## 1
Amino acid sequence: GHPSIARATREPSRPTEPPDETIHPPATTTMSAAAMTSRAALAAAPSRAALARRASKPFAHSKLAAARPKRRAGLKNPLVVRAEAATEEKPASGGETYEYQAEVNRLLDLIVNSLYSNRDVFLRELVSNASDALDKLRFTSVSNPDVMAADGEMKMRIKGDPASKTLVIEDTGIGMTRDDLVSSLGTIARSGTAKFMEMLQSQSEGDNLIGKFGVGFYSAFLVADKITVVTKNHADDKAWVWESEIDSSSYSIREATDADAAPARGTKILLSLKEGAEEFAEDARLTNLVKTYSEFISFPIEVFATKSVPKQVEDVDATAKAAEEYNKKKIEAEAKGEEFTDAAPEPVMKTEYEDVQEFVVTNNDKPIWVRSPRDVEADAYNEFFKSTFKEFLDPLAYNHFAVEGDIEFRSILYVPGMAPFEQQDMMAKSKAIKLYVRRVFISDEFDESLLPRYLTFVRGVVDSNDLPLNVSREILQESRVVRVMRKRLVRKTLDMLKEIAGRDNGDYDTFWDAFGRNLKLGVIEDAANRDALGSLLRFQTSKTETGKVKGLDAYIEGMPEGQPDIYYVAADTRAAAENSPFLEQLTKKGYEVLFMIDPIDEVAMANLTQYKEKKLVDISKEDLDLGDVDEEEKKRQTEIEEEMKPLTDWLQETLGAGKVEKVAVSKRLTDTPCILVTSKFGWSANMERIMKAQAMGDNRAQEYMKGKKTMEINPKSPVILDLKARVAAGDVSAAAA
């Protein structure tokens, strides 16, 4: 079979009896899973009745009903094969006409209506198929060098003709025989590609040269209303022509004539472009598509394009001026009677450019990711990053790796040197990861499938050997291959960030300033990698200079003996955090406190909860544990609470349950008379302030999420002691005032 037409995984076929001893059409097969992505997709295809109702649509393959070719009764020519449901007779022209198999018939309708959202991909598919045909030729030539005799070159050519509205894609690959055309183009599951893959695997576990998808060829109907395939196989002394039209239910096969201009070996696909698709005959458009989707195909792709060629022409004005100067000198010499021996001036030439049309190779670049990392210099990685992702600063780090085994892919990931200017919109659609399948560009809009949202700042290229070319967002979401790839990409990215964090220079400070919020978002959203992300977090603390940050590992290393937990306080500024009364007792004990001054910080800490077996504690909430307390201290605290009980009861009664849930003696205050702390569960006072400021905040959520308030009093404060004395003396009105 020939892979430049259709590719699919092979499924068991259901044998049928040939309608005639002379004609042996292909057996009806089940729909290929790779071609349709799932059996559900085929089940959703239009029924026969629905197809008949759609007969008036532009894509008229839907009109077909028969599942396999049958010979029309009463025809004397045994070479004419036609479905009984066909409504229009065409001259056979000495060839054979076949009905599309039912699976292909339904597929053709789905291709136009749902499978491909961007018709540009038709060229990507046909070029990829041609590349597979060349791969097959190269493989075959190892054991049979004679296959290269007709044409030693291995290349593809693309030529558009705007005048005739046609497009030709030609390759010098393996080519097809008549039987290949019959078996490959009427069905998908029995494509030549699938057969070749089966043969390869039966011989050895060799390279996965050929794709396993089966709809590539048919995507040409997105832009063409007629397709003509002219092909010649090295083992066949004849060339063959396959033809089909978009408003026909069948295809024909005949022997090629001189007028068909068959290649010496290989396949030529002629597309008669639809109305509205004339742009695909223009060389600039074709060149752009090749560079976008097929730039890294391993075989040369030549596009017939306009090219400016320099040529030397005479500069008439300069030549005349030189001649005038020469004659002037000659006359002067003769007037003086002197001998004049200067040579006559040569014509003065100049370079002009003229536009000529010729085949130009458009894919000169070898993809950097297929090379060994040992063979690539740092400058090459940096240049690739800047040219591919339109950056002007070198990346902070890159990671070039290959994954082998059940799932194979290669990738280069980059951490940019600065945040994009439109960072607010970065989460929406960053186009950060370019997905390739066997060097063929697929899309840069699958970021969320390959990396979680918080890593959208990462730039990179991923080249998979296991995904189909007609990959969609739905396929990625359901694919086990993508899930494995995603895990590896996340792990490699975090490894990169750890490497940056371990540097002695200021690279990580640069990274943190640009992308620190992304990692905090990751702590909230990525439960599986919270510990790894926790080590990358940085915060200002009560012991750092203004603007300087510290990681949790450094915090733990600096914890004094007896400190049980990691403490933090949330505020809107560093100054507010430093002046917070919640810090008083901790500062006295020498405990360091993290300052959460970014609105997302407190939410991130609430999700992280602990780091390296140390709990993360908000010091603005109740039941603050400041470490082990001896029995004498506990006894003294109990005595103070009993002593202050009349005051706390009076305060509770005066303030009422609507304002505070309870009044207690504080263990965290040294100077401030009293503070309000919130319950362990629910929002802190700072978070409540943030949520109230939200333009689209939910008032109902605020009612049940805000924490209950506890008033803590400082038993050593002169204000509290004076208040206690007044309550004890019965001077309630003065105390309340």
Note: Confidence is low (pLDDT under 50) at residues 1-93, 188-194, 203-214.
## 2
Amino acid sequence: MDMMKPSTKEDIQNGVVATSYGNIPSTTQKCAQGICIEVSLKLGCIVIFILASLCYINSINGSFVFDDTEAIVNNEDAKGKTPLNEIFFNDFWGTSLNHRSSHKSYRPLTILSFRLNSMFGGLNPTHFHLTNVLLHSICCTLSLIIFATLLKESRPRLSFVSAVIFSVHPVHTEAVSGIVGRADLLCGIFYFLSIYLYAKHLDAGSLTSFAGSMASCTVAMFCKEQGITVLGVIAVYDVIRSVSGTLNLGTIIKRRDILQRFCLIAVVGMALLYIRLSVMGSTGPPAFQRVDNPASFADSMMTRALSYNYIYSIHALLLVWPQWLCFDWSMGCIPLVKHVMDLRNLGSLFFWIVTFSAAFRALFSPSQRQRKFLTLGLALMAVPFLPATNIFFRVGFVVAERVLFIPVAGYCLVLVYGAEKLCAFFPSCSYSKLLILRCCLLSVVLTFGLKSFRRSLDWQDEGQLFLSGLKICPLNAKVHYNIGKNAADRGLRDVAIDRYEKALELNPDYDQAMNNLANLLKDLGRFQAAESWLLKAISVRPDFAAAWMNLGIVQALLRKHKEARMSYLTALSHRRKYPDCYYNLGNLYLELERYREAEEAFRNATLLQPTHVLAWTNLIVMLDNTGQSQRSQSTALEALTILPNEANLHFSLAGILGKQGQFKESERHFLSAIQLNPHSPIYHTNLGVLYHRWKKFQKAEQSYQRALSLDPQWKSAIENLKLLEKAKQK
């Protein structure tokens, strides 16, 4: 096929194929040789790999933070607890793509990498973080190869400096130190690989390279949706590589080989889009909430346009000076731009002036070298960012550092070219002037590297991460919410209540904050206040299943049994597979002595979640207390086949067997329970009761004494010890 042929001599003579730009002898380039160190490709790769690793080596000691919990710890797909094929039918968070609550983020290959981590290292965060650091280092090494390929540098010079800055850029911290950023790292690797193979195809006309480029694009997309945009980048590179002179549509249309390649790229792109839309499920696009992306919900088109443009300028600012990094920019972090006279519009205007100026020079500059650098740089910055613009569809964030992972590569090209052009202002290229330029570049690298290292420390622990967000976005209700959630997990209830109340002050419709605040108030015995907050939560979001369930719990505590039952049933209508709700409904029926319905509810809980220990335990105890000892015993044995190392189940079964006079078997299960949980005084006390009834008084006394050593005030052990003394005296 014509499209697969490399550039011919005739093409070159006709001036339609660019020469090797890296070899253009010019004052600027000669000066650049003084600014940028020339290294071999092999040495450059080693330096880049080590540098990228050093910036984030401290993240290896981090834990699971923020989204890591939902994407990995609570995701059965990531832990390998579901059949392998399920990862291709569920979203990134383990929810079926057909479920209406699905986030619709489809990244099966990233989930597969989490699954492999879990398979070989369990849920040890160190292994996950180490994998991220290695993947980032590989991606940065590939960036050097890509830059060298695009700039035609056999011995990297400008490409080496570009790769160094790419490796240390602080905006990468979220992708590297946050484990869920694995999606960006894997996507980046195959994104660069696709560009590299396409460049090789243009060099030699190899079908294999072209197929490999398209395959890499496909893999990149299945790691993260952004991967499909590489098709746009390679299309721009094709034009820059194949057409010399000022770029115009007429020249491109006349090139049959370019059009043929574009047609194939378009076919691949449409096929991938079809696949992506097909797997989205029957429920359509994700339904984000207003708090996730307020600008996209604004009624005024002008507000949306002004806010979007300001958000673009914020992303650009993070590329240039990544000082203000935050794990979450939603809610009130960036207030909407509602008026033309808002001073923030000056930032948007400056952003577009710079962008259009660069684009104009990229298209019409008389310098082929300048057109090449600017076009490639702008393409790498703009094209991967397109999915985050809200132009094609609504996204679930305001500002996201992770979406800048690949655009950083374009920024690095433009920055280094800017340094090269700056040198052109010094014709003599004196040593002192070169030294100043070198120091400027070195200061950028050191500043970025130290910032990355420091920022990575914030991502080691949720407490540090959330507090760092408070410095950047004090008006973000979600930041306060996460600080409250973290405080609650650590038992700091007063701090948690204060943060939840602050979050609700900033966002009065924050239903999740209402739900969590209500749970804390419930634990403190403030049932009326808890009920009030939960009623507000379900008024804000009527399909909030967790709030309905928690409302049922509070209403049951307030003896509002009829209302509690309706709340539980409403929760189940919104979330059919809700084992905790079935468990609480079973407790309500148990309290109302509606045993058949209680058993049905407990059974539903264990069917949906076979490891639901509390549901098994309450079912076993209920059957035993209602005189169904044989069924209780068989249920306990059934539960132990699923949870053989659950102490409470051994304890329950031991009690049943003891009542039936099966002392030997009862003793075995008591001892199993104690072996699994040796610090429970009730286990030792009840074992003592068994020995007491078995007439093994010495063992009974030892068990009671052991219980009292664990809790000197354990009333049951004290009383039974007195009864034992009386029995021994008879």
Note: The first helix runs from residue 9 to 13.
## 3
Amino acid sequence: PTRHAGHKAKATRTTTTTPKHPNNMKVKLSLSARRLPNVAGLGKGTSDPFCVVTKLAEGASQPVVLGKTEVIKNTLSPDWTKVFVFDYELGHPVHIAISVYDEVRKGSNKAMGSAKFELGGILGAKGSVKAKKMKGGGTIFAHVEKYSGSGTLRLALQGIKLKNTEGMFNKSDPFYDVKRKVTGPSGDVWDVIYRSQHISNDLNPQWADSTIDLAALCGGNLEQHIQISVYDHEKSGKHVLMGEIETCVRELVAAKNSGPFTLRRKGKDKGKLAVNRADLIGMEDLSTQVAGMSLSGGASAPPLPMPVPVPVPVPAAAASGAGAYVPGSAPAYVPGAPASAPPAAAGSPTFVDFISGGCELNLCVAIDFTGSNGDPRKPGTLHYIHPDGSLNDYEKAIQAIGRILAKYDHDQKFPVLGFGAKYGGIVRHCFQAGATPEVDGVDGIVQAYRSVFRTGLIMSGPTVFTEVMQTAAAHAVSSQEEAKRNGKQAYTVLLILTDGAVSDVHATAECLKQISDSPMSVVIVGVGAADFSAMQFLDDCASHGTPDIAQFVEFNRHRHDRLALTAATLDEIPDQLVGYFSRKGVSPARAVHLDEEEVVVEPEEEEIDLSLAFGNDGEINVASGGHYNSSMNF
């Protein structure tokens, strides 16, 4: 995931949402802000900002305050270190509100601004970072990355004979930062994970024990480079560096038996840093492994090798495909079967790893225009276009599923195909919907769908999926090959919307087998009240070692619950994506990191309808509002 320069995140304490699914993935959210308005008041200095994260409610659920960050004194560009941990599932959107306040010790906290985000939208953005302007001024940055939950480091440090930076008559007020190294396009950046309290007027400070999340600090890798920097605290926020060391967690644990580190600044010794305690909690076996190590001066950890992607072969037939039939042009090319899959690669990457590394999800939509849908000019039929602007069931499915998947596609270009209609007396089982091979955005998909009824088609039959699946597979292979040439990765989701079971089960099953080694998932949504029991054959297509790439869902079972529909249709895609790349021996690319200037700042939105109540005991509750303004129902 992307870190922008100077953006401090990841914390010693984390806030976690309640698990909902046994196979979910965990991600962590970190926050920063820039150029906040100063609301402290005349003569009261600079605001002391903190932010509150609230999970917005949808449908009958209630909004929940997930917690607050620490307060950062005297700054209008804070980098909060606390992170919030969420259970992430592709088909379950999570909408959150970020509310920024100026802490007022004796009085009510003052609002500084707020913004809404969707967790998957942040993850799918370039670098897994989103930024939004807030009403009243300022910009909030939200960053999502994988949370590995690999235990904690209990750390107690002590400074010994630190070099004073306060002059002859005063002593420094030292505190320390623990940082991890992040590599971005402009070079390495040290990212603050934990900051201790400062101790006033003491050159031999003994700081209180800290508990640091290892997932945030080093991703569970005990040899990952980290830095500990000691500063002299200044009320202005312009803290003075006293000295620093570069080390790793494994060396910190071993340093309990090996003497102190030497702090250095500009090549000169600036005192010692002793490790009084460095225990791994939840990783006792590793703590035992490093207990006997000794150090000589706290040497830096060795660099880690980067994974090397393995090339993915492109079927020759697919590479030369001509695409779908365009009304008035030549018929569609039918690509051949892709090559068989090699053995699965070792390791256990996740969907989040691939998305964080820049893997894009490409959506392709195929729509059933067979005669069994009924006359689209008659109300009550499945393709009827409502004059009042309300959506038919085809359009509802496109909107619900498309808007989730579109968050993971940076160019927002989508192919739209049709099948089952006659043009020039010939039944076309794969034709281009819309005036262009790709349309812009989810609204473009809906417009391309509606435009088909103005092309002089005759709705016909039978219901055949094979050509759209083969065409989409060729497109998927081509997209992945192009991405690979550019050092990237791509995966396609084919969404087929149909009103009936396929006419030839055997041919469809054989086609799924042929394309099962493509970088693609197939999601089939049955629209209408037909008997879809024959579609059960899809569950048997993954037998005999063939990868499972298909999922069938009946729309009517979820027609009153949009979230249930997206969960049912999309929940298998993460495992299918990981399975494809693992079979090819392709590791996730290194997480994309952006400099702050590279993050696209979205314009301010309407004020969030959310009021928070701050209790005297520190508890924060939702006083009113907090509902996401999109119904769970269609």
Note: The two ends are 33 Å apart (CA to CA).
